[in-house]
Write a structure and sequence with these properties.
With 566 residues, the protein is of the alpha/beta class. The protein is built from 21 helices and 16 strands. The protein folds into three domains: 171 residues, Thiamin diphosphate (ThDP)-binding fold, Pyr/PP domains (Rossmann fold); 124 residues, Rossmann fold (3-Layer(aba) Sandwich), CATH 3.40.50.1220; 196 residues, Rossmann fold (3-Layer(aba) Sandwich), CATH 3.40.50.
């Protein structure tokens, strides 16, 4: 049988519409399996029955049933994260029923889009005759996620005559999903349960080489003795090339924990150092090469935006120029092709290193003198005492800042910094954990009580999953990061607490215990280190005070800067 467009369609033995739908879904799943997809996250529902059955029919596909759609979506995001910079990732499948279930996927789809995390979003939908007529559990799902997905297709109800194009549809979706989330909207007509018949032959997709985006011409004369290399998250660049640039230029590397390069960073105390105006001015570079995302440090961002600084952006994800001062966007290969003299033959790099060592030692001494466990000390302890093979997911508010500013060279973590949202932190970590062997790769979470409560549905059925998830909750009863903003000083205390402090009064350990998750509490560094070594899942509460935390940060910054002028 040949379609009007010349596509050859095999003659399929299909008894009825339900069998056609079942065979259609089985074909998509088979194609995705052949292309390397191995994980599917299902948020339960009725309209998605044909695809849910097709997924669970295949033993090669690991299926994770997650009751809350928002949790499910962030779990799929976690499954799709790269294990390390420069390593190709594989999209997870994410399935839900029709209606608001699909809308609840939106926050994770937005994060995946901004962070270029692969994901294949499958939303079940009513057939066209039930759209716009008041059918229950029906919303407009066409292009629901807008420009946050790399590709969208509204698939009509499956028809046997189009069977020859089913595998191509799956391959096309997979091809687009490598660069970020895609959305495949699947119309299903009742009856929803059928029997899959013989599948069409395998489709071998043509892997097209995507031409590199044109880059700006690197400004002439940008090479300087006074240069620095900033490395942030999601850069996707081979570590060896970054180190080659570093060795050729003798410029210091300032890497944040999300870069995966903290272990080779020559400067880790930059946020504290730049809070001193004298130091920030005297050490201001002429050239900054920023690789990947910008860090969380506001003072570092302001420093690189000073007049006279030439800022070169290497890599993404997406456009990274919030201060509108990027002089050129280029590849690491563009820079390595230039004969760079940099700071070779000078003491620029050694001076940076010496300064950082002084500040770092002052930080270590100050943290060691603490009588109670501060929030920066929690981040430091996690960074330095994670078991071999463990990974860390960190909330995008104060925890990632504490890790960046006070975590030292051992700090390495993932944080959802695409949209910088409060949502989905534990769920993302759950997805990362589900993608690895639990016995050899525990997943840790550092999170505040507000974000923890916000994503507490990730604890549902946690003890039934084969994961070693260890969650450290810094509990300061509210939104701790707002205490560092001008609002805290400009507003009356009651108004500030009402709008920003937002105390919860929630017993986070009782919340965890309600889901059967073991709990603990740590008030000293020793207690936290001991808890870190315990197999998960568990939730450990570290009590804190928002006011005391602000004072601790100021004291730590002051002590690090003071050593520069002794």
């Amino acid at each position: 049988m040949v379609d009007s467009d010349g596509t050859e369609t095999p003659e399929l033995d299909l008894a009825g519409p339900a069998d056609v739908q079942a065979t259609f879904c089985a074909t998509l799943v088979d194609q995705w399996l052949r292309l390397g997809v191995r994980h599917a996250v299902i948020a339960p529902g009725s309209r998605s029955t044909p695809m849910a059955i097709a997924l669970t029919d295949r033993s090669e596909m690991t299926v994770h049933v997650v009751h809350d759609e928002r949790v499910a979506a962030f779990t799929a995001l976690g499954l799709g994260l790269e294990p390390s910079p420069g390593v190709s990732a594989t999209p997870a499948l994410l399935l839900c029923t029709s209606g608001t279930a699909a809308a609840n996927f939106a926050p994770a789809v937005v994060e995946a889009g901004l962070s270029e995390v692969p994901m294949i979003v499958l939303t079940a939908d009513r057939p066209k005759e039930l759209r716009g007529v008041g059918a229950p559990q029906t919303i407009d799902q066409v292009e629901l996620y807008g420009e946050h997905v790399t590709w969208f297709h509204d698939a009509g109800v499956a028809e046997a005559s189009a069977a020859g194009r089913w595998r191509q549809l799956a391959a096309t979706a997979w091809g687009h999903a490598i660069a970020g989330p895609i959305h495949l909207n699947l119309q299903f007509r009742e009856p929803l349960v059928g029997t899959p018949r013989a599948l069409p032959d395998f489709y071998e997709p043509v892997i097209e080489t995507v031409a590199a985006e044109p880059t700006d011409v690197v400004p002439s004369g940008f090479d300087s003795e006074r240069g620095v290399i900033l490395v942030g998250g999601r850069h996707g660049i081979d570590e060896r090339k970054i180190l080659e640039l570093h060795h050729r230029t003798a410029w210091p590397i300032i890497a944040d924990p999300m870069s995966g390069l903290r272990h080779v960073s020559t400067v880790t105390t930059i946020d504290a150092l730049l809070r001193n105006d004298v130091y920030a001015s005297e050490w201001c570079p002429d050239t900054v090469v920023r690789i990947g995302r910008q860090s969380t440090s506001k003072v570092l961002g302001q420093w690189t935006a000073r007049p006279g600084v030439t800022l070169i952006q290497v890599g993404g994800p997406g456009c990274i120029d919030p201060t509108h001062n990027v002089a050129a966007t280029c590849s690491i290969e563009d820079l390595l092709a230039i004969d760079l003299a940099g700071a070779t033959g000078s003491t620029w790099l050694q001076d940076w290193h010496a300064t950082d060592e002084l500040a770092e030692q002052a930080l270590i001494d100050r943290l060691a003198a603490e009588s109670t466990l501060s929030e920066p000390a929690v981040a430091r302890a996690l960074a330095e005492h994670l078991p071999p093979g463990a990974q860390l997911t960190v909330s995008s508010s104060m925890p990632i800042r504490d890790l960046e500013w006070f975590g030292g060279r051992a700090a390495s973590a993932h944080s959802n910094r695409g949209a910088n949202g409060i949502d989905g932190v534990v769920s993302t970590a759950l997805g990362r954990a589900l993608g690895r062997p639990a016995k050899t790769s525990p997943e840790f979470v550092l999170i505040g009580d507000l974000a923890f409560v916000h994503d507490s549905n990730a604890l549902v059925a946690l003890t039934r999953r084969a994961v070693d998830l260890r969650i450290v909750v810094v509990d300061n009863d509210g939104g701790g990061i707002f205490s560092f903003l001008p609002q805290s000083a400009l507003l009356e205390r009651d108004r500030f607490e009402q709008l920003f402090g937002t105390p919860l009064g929630t017993d986070v350990l009782a919340l965890a215990a309600a889901h059967g998750v073991p709990t603990a509490i740590a008030t000293t560094v020793g207690e936290l280190i001991a808890q870190i070594s315990c197999p998960g899942p568990w939730v450990c509460r570290v009590p804190s005070s928002r006011d005391a935390n602000v004072r601790t940060h100021q004291e730590l910054n002051d002590v690090m800067v003071s050593v520069l002028f002794e």
